[in-house]
């Protein structure tokens, strides 16, 4: 771990996509994150923030995906193994939460195996929490897998078995 090296968090650029893939791939191999095709990362690059060390090396990433007027999802949060425990994940979460507030969101959702990390960052198990029936009727029409995971639809269960649906209410 390079604690003496400083890092910054910024908006992702299209040139960051290969680095995001490289950060995510070990977590995909460990079955912590679901794999995505490169095109999906390019399509969502505007949702991503990245952490870079003082030499410009990508050391963390995370995305905020808007699901509804008050609801967003934290996606693809990953930190380079050498930087685990250095606060990069916490800093990424702070930035994504600030982005969520700027967008007017009041809740964040995540689907995760990393329950301890998200609990330390103010998330709690969603349990059977749902949304207003009218909102559900709109959300259920979305082709987005994250929305299906939030709604706990049966069609996503084979891919997400064992993950915990978590939510955080923003101040």
From TrEMBL:
<feature type="domain" description="N-acetyltransferase">
    <location>
        <begin position="7"/>
        <end position="142"/>
    </location>
</feature>
<dbReference type="InterPro" id="IPR000182">
    <property type="entry name" value="GNAT_dom"/>
</dbReference>
<keyword id="KW-0012">Acyltransferase</keyword>
<dbReference type="GO" id="GO:0016746">
    <property type="term" value="F:acyltransferase activity"/>
</dbReference>
<dbReference type="Pfam" id="PF00583">
    <property type="entry name" value="Acetyltransf_1"/>
</dbReference>
<dbReference type="InterPro" id="IPR010167">
    <property type="entry name" value="NH2A_AcTrfase"/>
</dbReference>
<protein>
    <submittedName>
        <fullName>Amino-acid N-acetyltransferase</fullName>
        <ecNumber>2.3.1.1</ecNumber>
    </submittedName>
</protein>
<keyword id="KW-0808">Transferase</keyword>
<dbReference type="InterPro" id="IPR016181">
    <property type="entry name" value="Acyl_CoA_acyltransferase"/>
</dbReference>
């Amino acid at each position: 771990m390079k604690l003496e090296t400083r890092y910054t968090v910024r908006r992702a650029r299209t040139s960051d996509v290969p680095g995001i893939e490289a950060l995510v791939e070990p977590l995909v191999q460990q079955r912590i994150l679901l794999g995505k095709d490169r095109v999906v990362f390019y399509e969502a690059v505007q949702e991503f923030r990245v952490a870079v060390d003082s030499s410009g090396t990508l050391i963390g990433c995370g995305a905020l995906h808007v699901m509804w007027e008050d609801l967003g999802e934290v996606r693809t949060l990953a930190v380079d193994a050498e930087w685990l425990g250095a606060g990069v994940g916490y800093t990424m979460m702070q930035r994504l939460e600030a982005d969520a507030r700027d967008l007017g969101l009041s809740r964040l959702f995540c689907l995760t195996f990393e329950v301890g990390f998200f609990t330390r960052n103010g998330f709690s198990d969603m349990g059977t929490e749902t949304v207003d029936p009218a909102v559900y009727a709109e959300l259920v029409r979305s082709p987005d897998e994250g929305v299906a995971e939030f709604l706990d639809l049966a069609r996503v269960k084979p891919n997400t078995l064992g993950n915990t649906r978590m939510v955080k209410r923003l101040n």
